[in-house]
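User: Structure tokens for both sequences below?

Assistant:
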Amino acid sequence: MNEQIDTLRVVCRLDELADPGSRAFTMGAGDWPLRGFLVRRGTRVFAYVNRCPHAGHPLNWRPDDFLMPDSSLILCRSHGARFDISTGLCVLGPCSGKSLQSIDVDVQNGYVMLTRDPDELAARFA
């Protein structure tokens, strides 16, 4: 990797994320690391904490499976809630009007990176 890249904040390479597609990640140390997921749409990447605002559990049952079959919305597999990809807003389901907790990410030199330290984010979202 390029020396200017903070490897502790790298989630994955952009080319490892399907377009459109999603991917789970766990980052940070300790018993309560940051658990999130990415969604890619073209050159844009969105990241959210992997926690349903309705029930507080992960949105996916299978690894990296966060999207509707047509990739148009994020889907909570437990209760069927659907979320806008770019805002995280629940547009249908038991948590309608609530939002997923977004995580700021950047794409730098072909890598998707957290903009903040993963342990700091884990403590914030625990």
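Moving on to the next sequence.
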Amino acid sequence: MDGKALVAALLSSGVKPRPPYIPILGQLAHLLGQVTEEVFTTDPRMQATVLVEVATALCADAITVGVGSSPAVGADVVKRLGPLLRGRAVVGCLAEADVPGAREYCEAGVDMILLLAPDRLNTGRFRTLSNACSF
């Protein structure tokens, strides 16, 4: 079962063969890819290249996109990753419950949205985010 199927199984209520391995690639990726943080977070082509190399080296089931980047850059990275995925899922990472950012990721074709540091006091924002992702 490839990473895309494992992430889909994670989001369903059925039996799961195993949890997908989804390392949160950000600082680790730019360090291993030997590019500066500024280049990694602002250059979609470079971020896509580095993420594929690091995810391959780590045998990851999914590639996390957008750690430290704006959702616009992350969405561009998602579009560039398409032919390079080799069965991996794509996870769009957001620092907060950013509804427009989630829409950008979903329109670009991510398999899942991951909130890295959500504000748990603003629960209404989660519902709005969930609705945006479901749509």
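User: Anything stand out in the second?

Assistant: The radius of gyration is 14 Å.
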